[in-house]
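F.,

This is the one I mentioned.
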């Protein structure tokens, strides 16, 4: 499945919120998201509009690995 091209930080944070990720802090233009449920996981996303495709791909690959799901399934879950 293709990556969405117009994802900004706000919509990505909202989408990841459905998986239990919550913003915990912000330093400059980077926002730290944490998931406290098992397994605990943290990641940093840039507060950009839009997020570059390589950066978005890396974030989604990392989340998919921790959620133990395929990246295409994760994209469908987050962005419909």
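My design for it:
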């Amino acid at each position: 499945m293709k990556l969405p091209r117009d994802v900004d930080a706000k919509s990505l944070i909202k989408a990841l919120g459905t998986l239990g990720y919550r913003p915990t802090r912000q330093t400059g233009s980077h926002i730290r998201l944490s998931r406290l449920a098992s397994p605990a996981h943290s990641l940093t996303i840039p507060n950009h509009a839009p997020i570059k495709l390589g950066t978005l791909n890396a974030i989604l690959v990392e989340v998919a690995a921790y959620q133990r799901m395929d990246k295409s399934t994760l994209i469908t879950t987050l962005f419909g």
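Residues 9-79 form a domain with the Metal Transport, Frataxin; Chain A fold (CATH 3.30.920).

Talk soon.
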